[in-house]
């Protein structure tokens, strides 16, 4: 099953399970035969929203339709769509639609509908992607890491803050000096350990390649030997990096026979000015 087909199968499963309050990201990922992390990441890259956001928006869209087209009590509709109290339902409903459930029933104001997603392959021959495939032995990185929950989109909010923090406290400059140049210069390393998969957790490292005794205050991680596909990224951060990730999963993987292995993935940042239009960086993904 290809990436696009897998995500569409997951969306179909979500749609048939929206009334099931036991619906979980773990169950949805199982439909796609992928880990929670990789399913979440692919879904976000293709749709620009988390799985939880999609489920919540679809439930509140259907709840609004039911308010308009039935005489069912608001309290019963709130329970039906997974809210423990009418107050929680009203708060979420107002956040999405801008009006209360009572106002919606009285047809006061406009509603905001999120339609069922349909994923399509987007191949743009006019915008070629420059890449190469290399094989590398295992290597060590040293740096700092934080753990994020991918189930609620914590990683998308937390990682930019992490980068800001390491620039402020001098860790970024320290890592630049420690780098042995094996992969220049600073790396963002995404790692999902086996015990983290079912919990939807991931470790994100800001690190540099390094050999020898681990410096005080830093941790080490061994990136396994892999066959890598390396994509060029051109343009200012963070948009150029984010856009390339999206193109990789929406265009490149659906058009090729390769698949990610699920081991550590790398964002490689050079010494270029990150705000420059000609800033150069790379994305490394281990493939099979």
How would you sum up this structure in a few lines?
The chain is α+β, with helices and mostly antiparallel strands and 288 residues long. Helix content is 39%, strand content 20%.
Task: Explain what the structure shows.
InterPro entries: AraC_E-bd, Cass2, Homeodomain-like_sf, HTH_AraC, HTH_AraC-typ_CS, MarA-like, Reg_factor_effector_dom_sf, Tscrpt_reg_AraC-type_HTH. Keywords: DNA-binding, Transcription, Transcription regulation. This is AraC family transcriptional regulator. With 288 residues, the protein is α+β, with helices and mostly antiparallel strands. The protein has two domains: 103 residues, Homeodomain-like (Arc Repressor Mutant, subunit A, Orthogonal Bundle); 156 residues, Regulatory factor, effector binding domain (Multidrug-efflux Transporter 1 Regulator Bmrr, Chain A). The protein contains ten helices and eight strands. The chain has an eight-stranded antiparallel beta sheet with strand order 1-6-8-7-3-4-2-5. Helix 5 packs across helix 6. The longest helix has 19 residues. It is elongated and about 70 Å long. The model has no long low-confidence stretch (mean pLDDT 90).
């Amino acid at each position: 099953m290809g990436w696009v087909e897998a995500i569409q199968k997951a969306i179909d499963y979500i749609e048939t399970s929206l009334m099931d309050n036991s619906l979980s990201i773990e169950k949805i990922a199982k439909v796609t035969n992928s880990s929670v992390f990789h399913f979440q990441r692919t879904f976000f890259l293709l749709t620009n929203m988390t799985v939880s956001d999609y489920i919540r928006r679809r439930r509140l869209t259907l709840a609004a339709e039911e308010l308009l087209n039935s005489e069912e009590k608001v309290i019963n509709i709130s329970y039906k769509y997974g809210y423990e109290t009418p107050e929680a339902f009203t708060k979420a409903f107002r956040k999405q639609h801008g009006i209360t459930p009572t106002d919606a029933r009285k047809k006061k104001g406009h509603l905001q509908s999120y339609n069922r997603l349909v994923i399509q392959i987007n191949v743009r021959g006019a915008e070629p992607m420059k890449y190469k495939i290399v094989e590398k032995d295992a290597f060590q990185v040293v740096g700092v890491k934080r753990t994020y929950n991918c189930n609620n989109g914590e990683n998308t909010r937390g990682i930019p803050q992490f980068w800001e923090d390491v620039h402020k406290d001098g860790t970024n400059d320290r890592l630049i000096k420690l780098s042995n140049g094996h992969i220049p210069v600073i790396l963002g390393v995404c790692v999902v350990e086996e015990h983290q998969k079912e919990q939807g957790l991931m470790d994100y490292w800001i690190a540099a390649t390094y050999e020898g005794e681990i410096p005080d205050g830093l941790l080490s991680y061994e990136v396994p030997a892999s066959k890598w596909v390396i994509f060029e990224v051109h343009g200012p951060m963070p948009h150029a990096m984010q856009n390339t990730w999206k193109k990789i999963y929406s265009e490149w993987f659906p058009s090729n026979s390769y698949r990610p292995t699920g081991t550590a993935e790398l964002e490689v940042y050079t010494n270029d000015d990150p705000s420059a239009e000609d800033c150069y960086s790379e994305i490394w993904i281990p493939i099979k």
